[in-house]
Specification:
CATH superfamily: Aromatic compound dioxygenase
Radius of gyration: 18 Å
Largest sheet: 5 strands, mixed
CATH topology: Protocatechuate 3,4-Dioxygenase, subunit A
Order of helices and strands: EEEEEHEEEEHHEEEE
Number of helices: 3
CATH architecture: Sandwich
Helix content: under 10%
Number of strands: 13
Low-confidence stretches: 1-28, 217-225
Strand content: 25-35%
Amino acid sequence: MSLLHLPDRRLFLGSLAASFFTVKGAFAEQLFATPRLTEGPFYPDKLPLDQDNDLIIINDSITPAVGEITHLTGRVLTASGEPVKDATVEIWQCDANAVYLHTRDSGPKAAQQDKHFQGFGRFSTASDGGYRFRTIKPVPYPGRPAPHIHFKVKKGDRELIVSQLMMRGFDGNLRDGVFNGVRDVIDRELLVTDFKPIPDSKTGELSARFDIVLGRTPDERNVRG
């Protein structure tokens, strides 16, 4: 886990591959918060009946979604590194044909929508703050050259963060308006992760780990544990 002095944030390049960072000094042992990004226009306007954490299979269907199966895992943490238990992590993304689960998108593109992709899922974090989803590797689409997965974290009725995770090193990232709007190199690194082949997977499945660090707020104590 890398330690950073705040005045040198833009000069620090050596450990950008770390999943999150800490800072020294007056903010000792504080993790850098995951940057917030726009929710976007396609948070589902009608949630699916199946809202579990497996987006590949809908209900009892035997037909899986099209795409590269990805196991997305991580933890939700406070800025001080405390795990956030019983938080709700939601993810949503377009299918392999670039269609979202939203009437403004899936309506006009009904013929190309993958009816076997759930498009949205939820998971309640464990005692260690852990979450997991089975989904597909995100794909680019016109207007968004950076493949991404939207996510939202809630605790009870409180919305704690809305953002997006993206693929480290993807060529389209720097042409993407949302990603390009994040000017700080460290903040950009906090929004990306690697999608790695799972060793010995006979179907070419991938894994991706993404830790979500919540910013400090005056009532941070209310989102712990």
